[in-house]
Amino acid sequence: MDLATMRARVRQDLQDTDAQNYRWSNDEVDGAIERAVREFSLAYPIEEEDDIATTADSNELDISSLSRLLKAESVEFPLDNTPPYYQHFTKYGTSIYMQDEGNGDDARVRWLKQHSLDAEGSTIPEHLEELIVLGATGYLATSAAAYTIDKATIGGRDAAANYLKWGQARLERYERQLKAAARDNRIIPMELYAED
Fold this sequence. Notes:
Layout: H1 3-14, H2 26-43, E1 46-53, E2 60-62, E3 69-76, E4 89-92, E5 95-98, E6 106-113, E7 117-118, E8 121-122, H3 129-148, H4 159-185
Antiparallel strand pairs: 1-6, 2-5, 3-6, 4-5, 7-8
Helix pairs in contact: 1-2, 1-3, 2-3, 2-4, 3-4
């Protein structure tokens, strides 16, 4: 799903489909979608692995090529050891500082990446796209409730309270489903034991 399709889905749930009289601007809808995508990314990030060349006699590893980086999980160096040898490291800016110095060979960085949702498409799994709709509509509805609290509307004096209630219910569902997605995506370390 691309951004235009997601925006249309959000508007459909909000019943805001009259292009001549939108309640929310495209920028407002896109902002709510972006917020939901960022939160989704923290709960359900993309797992990536890249080999990056080390520099001889330096413990600094340039990770500026890792776009939309959320977190570096591990650095394996040197490679092809059994068991793998993982470096103690710290990240600062666009560099990782390993415990050991490099020798020009590659180090393997495993990292978590933020999802994207733009005009070209999305990295969000199809079965979880409705989660973004749920979050974005919840944020937009609660913001509309705050905006209309002391304004006259055709929805009557209860319009703001109704928006707020509906938006809060959607945000509660969104947070529950976000936690469930995070649990499903969690790696659980296990050890295998031979039977006696």
